[in-house]
Amino acid sequence: MKDNEKVAIVTGAGRGIGLEITRQLLSAGMTVVAVDLREDLLNGLPAALGAPVGKLDCRVMDVTDSARFTGLIDEVAEKYGRLDVLVNNAGITRDGLLLRMDDADWELVLKVNLTSAFIGTRAAARHMIRQRSGSIINMSSYSGLEGNRGQANYAASKAGLLGLTKTTAKELAGKNVRCNAVAPGFIKTEMTDVLPQQAKDIALEQIPLKRFGVPADVANAVAFLASEASSYITGQVISVDGGMHT
């Protein structure tokens, strides 16, 4: 089907990479359901994006609430008559050295970053299987591919997304439902702006392209995977990291 007829759900859509993904999918003509925990961020989204009337549907949602998140996906599929794209982008960090990390910080990061993607994927897949088409895109990370000091919980959650992605791709390919992952490196967002300058300098030295990425760099990859241009691609991980992971 044409990309401008598609319906997409984007989690963590209120700012940063999620906001830019929402912008890109709207630009492709898709109807986008923007999901975020923070109502204040969603309230400003229509004006910030200049979304056409009827094309942006903002929903306040805790994606770790299995019943509510599943219900939202079912409602969207019923309201619009289809569901074509799910972008599992919601994510948090609670960084700390392994020996100092407590159970609560471990469990929260896994719940938000990984379990919510499982909940969303399971619910969306049921609708995509019935219509025999769909694209699920999981937001992994360079940390999930390589690990990162001080991020045992975050790296584990993002590595888990890679396993979820490849398994989902294998299970759903026969129904023409695709699943891929995007693994950003150092992207300039509010999440990375708070890092000490020393940490930023060290990161820059590791990037072959010698610059930090911006949200649009990641959103471009997501938009490609959401489009018909990637219809023969599934089970893959696209690194958007300036050449750090090769």
Distance between the termini: 34 Å
Largest sheet: 7 strands, parallel
Order of helices and strands: EHEHHEHEHEHHEHHHE
Low-pLDDT parts are none
Strand arrangement within the widest β-sheet reads 3-2-1-4-5-6-7
Question: How much helix is in the residues?
Answer: 40-55%
In short, what is this structure?
With 246 residues, this protein is an alpha/beta fold.
Question: Please, could you describe this protein's structure?
Answer:
The model has no long low-confidence stretch (mean pLDDT 95). The chain starts with 6 loop residues before the first strand and ends in a 6-residue tail after the last strand. Strands 3-2-1-4-5-6-7 form a 7-stranded parallel beta sheet, sandwiched between helices. It has helices at 16-27, 39-43, 45-49, 66-80, 103-131, 142-146, 152-172, 190-193, 197-205, 215-226, and strands spanning 7-11, 31-36, 56-60, 85-88, 134-139, 177-184, 237-240. By secondary structure, it is α/β, with parallel strands linked by helices. The radius of gyration is 17 Å and the shape is globular. The chain is built from 10 helices and 7 strands.
Question: How would the blueprint of this fold be written?
Answer:
Blueprint (H helix, E strand, L loop, with lengths): L6 E5 L4 H12 L3 E6 L2 H5 L1 H5 L6 E5 L5 H15 L4 E4 L14 H29 L2 E6 L2 H5 L5 H21 L4 E8 L5 H4 L3 H9 L9 H12 L10 E4 L6
Parallel strand pairs: 1-2, 1-4, 2-3, 4-5, 5-6, 6-7
Helix pairs in contact: 1-10, 4-5, 5-7
